[in-house]
Amino acid sequence: EGGEMAKSTQLIDNEVFRAYATYTAIVLLKMMLMSLITAYFRITRKAFVNPEDTASFGKGESAKKFLRTDPDVERVRRGHLNDLENIVPFVGIGLLYALSGPELSTALLHFRIFVGARIFHTFAYLIPLPQPGRGLSWAVGYSVTFSMAYRVLKTAWLL
Amino acid sequence: EGGEMAKSTQLIDNEVFRAYATYTAIVLLKMMLMSLITAYFRITRKAFVNPEDTASFGKGESAKKFLRTDPDVERVRRGHLNDLENIVPFVGIGLLYALSGPELSTALLHFRIFVGARIFHTFAYLIPLPQPGRGLSWAVGYSVTFSMAYRVLKTAWLL
Amino acid sequence: EGGEMAKSTQLIDNEVFRAYATYTAIVLLKMMLMSLITAYFRITRKAFVNPEDTASFGKGESAKKFLRTDPDVERVRRGHLNDLENIVPFVGIGLLYALSGPELSTALLHFRIFVGARIFHTFAYLIPLPQPGRGLSWAVGYSVTFSMAYRVLKTAWLL
């Protein structure tokens, strides 16, 4: 029993897996930050969706005017959804990639570029920077995930 | 060959990993339930998005009036998206946390509070309960994931 | 050190895990393809959300008219969100299922039907095919994930 536990927790001793764990935790925390930024803009711009969220502003018509969309809130929400669309594949494919036995230096290169590109993407979306800044950072992250998927399929292929 | 297979499937013998598997399956099934609730409200409220979904109600103008948004449908959809935004980080960070060798009792505490908070969040969103019920349950789940991420980064840190 | 690394990377030698890795990589790449299709429709239909994305079409009013929604773009985006809602549970539950020690033939059956159903679902959404084509393919994928979750809970149950 103890032996089994020791054996399976040792996955975290693998250096490539440790790097995967570090970068995945960082990029998922970054994605979670989008919720806080959305909440910040909803409160400062007074722009809500749910009637129960505006109850503290009073009853009836006085509260209803805060049920509205705001460009800044919508911008953060688009950035958040873009994170989901891109970070979910990274987390899933990255795990399989980390288990496929790549060189540590190659793996670090993939993880660092992806996480750097996604952090840049968030700044590019929220500031916002002129295009093609945001588009390029999206493409860089996309290509890294694609490159990891290629190695996973080459190593694991069993259809 | 058989030896390898036996070794890797034994991860499921680790008690912390079994707890992770149990709570992750439960909370992902809960998230999947949101699709059924959306479908239920779309059909009972007759509120659809795709023209091909209203074809059974007749052709032309008679079917077009069912291409509309409905407050109940939109509410379930917001709950579903909120699940995606919060359950995805839990599943990813929770896996790394389960492999970082925490005490079973500590791990169970994290998993139970997170899954309990997300189930409460769904009820708070759909009933809906007055704030800050929904907000607090969201914050509780968020904090649990944050706490797990802290341990993952402390254990695995390799940048 | 080397021994640890060898041990953990051997997960990829497990045939069920290799099948999981193959099908997960394929279905996540399919989901990532939705971003490219969205970009294709945004550019060909000239329908954008962010003002900075239309800057290359000129300044002021001439560019503003491209800040609009387009039915084809919205359709792809709904397909993408539906992918997220369904592929995230597959990836999470499927990993636990692959580690629960199922027969290779049973696991392959689950993975093949799920990925086949999701590929069909994308075609059904984008062409679009008349209902219940899209609805049925959604239900098939949903049922496969449910079946895997049942085995995970039966094998790992620790509440």
TrEMBL record, chains A, B, C:
GO CC entries: endoplasmic reticulum membrane; mitochondrial outer membrane
Primary site of residence: endoplasmic reticulum
Similarity comment: Belongs to the MAPEG family.
Keywords of the record: Acetylation, Endoplasmic reticulum, Membrane, Mitochondrion, Mitochondrion outer membrane, Transferase, Transmembrane, Transmembrane helix
InterPro entries, per database record: MAPEG-like_dom_sf, Membr-assoc_MAPEG, MGST1-like
A Pfam family the protein falls into: MAPEG
Protein name, UniProt field: Microsomal glutathione S-transferase 1
Subunit comment: Homotrimer; The trimer binds only one molecule of glutathione.
Role, per record: Conjugation of reduced glutathione to a wide number of exogenous and endogenous hydrophobic electrophiles.
GO molecular function ontology, one term from the record: glutathione transferase activity
Catalytic activity: RX + glutathione = an S-substituted glutathione + a halide anion + H(+)
Gene from which the chain derives: Mgst1
Transmembrane segments: 20-41
Bilayer topology: Multi-pass membrane protein
EC assignment: 2.5.1.18
Subcellular location: Endoplasmic reticulum membrane; Mitochondrion outer membrane
